[in-house]
Amino acid sequence: MKQEEVKDIIEVLKRLADSENPTIDLAKRQQEKLLTCKNEQNTPVQWSINKSQFYKGKISLNCRLPNANINILRLDTAPVNQHTNPSFKKGIVPDWLENYGGIVIKEQAHLHVYVESFPSLEWVVPLSDISSFDVKSFENLDDIVKVIVQFARYIKLENELNVLKPLL
């Protein structure tokens, strides 16, 4: 899929396909939400919310195009992972990723971004470098709730979410 097409899908307004159920229940380990883009094609986007049962601050928020089975964006909060970005290649990789070419991202929350020539979300940007996110650490459920809400805004979700925290 072309870089510009994915960029347009990320930037277009979206709605929950099941707008009657805007709830994300953090007592569940895995949840799926089908989103519908407000474009001419009503492009579907599958939003997966996965919470680790072993690591308190670990959550993964993934958006993919279910019809093409292409991942377009994934936020990981786990500071235990390490990623080495590919080398930057002008004209192949979007210019805004130039400063991240070849660097190692480790021990911090990060966002995997779609790059046309690297379809497995190999490019990673520290979450701290993205102004849409102000959560810096994930030590409690309030931090997780906040990053879910910020991610929903980042992907242009119109619905107001109801994020439920589990009872202790």
Strand content: 35-45%
Class by helix and strand content? mainly beta
Instruction: Pick out the low-confidence regions.
Output: none
- Side by side, the strands of the main sheet go 1-3-4-5-6-9-10
Distance between the termini: 44 Å
Mean pLDDT: 92
The tally of beta strands, per DSSP, is: 11
Helix share, percent: 10-25%
* Major sheet characteristics: 7 strands, antiparallel
Describe the structure.
The protein is mostly beta strands. It has one domain (3-163). The chain has helices at residues 3-11, 141-154; strands at 14-16, 23-25, 30-37, 44-51, 59-65, 70-76, 82-84, 104-106, 110-115, 118-126, 162-164. A seven-stranded antiparallel beta sheet has the order 1-3-4-5-6-9-10, with helices on one face. The protein has a two-stranded parallel sheet with strand order 2-11. The chain is globular.
Helices and strands, with pairings:
Elements: H1 3-11, E1 14-16, E2 23-25, E3 30-37, E4 44-51, E5 59-65, E6 70-76, E7 82-84, E8 104-106, E9 110-115, E10 118-126, H2 141-154, E11 162-164
Parallel strand pairs: 2-11
Antiparallel strand pairs: 1-3, 3-4, 4-5, 5-6, 6-9, 7-8, 9-10
Characteristic key phrases:
single chain; 168 residues; mainly beta; 7-stranded antiparallel sheet; two-stranded parallel ribbon; 11 strands
The gist of it:
The protein has 168 residues and is mainly beta. The chain has 2 helices and 11 strands. It has one domain.
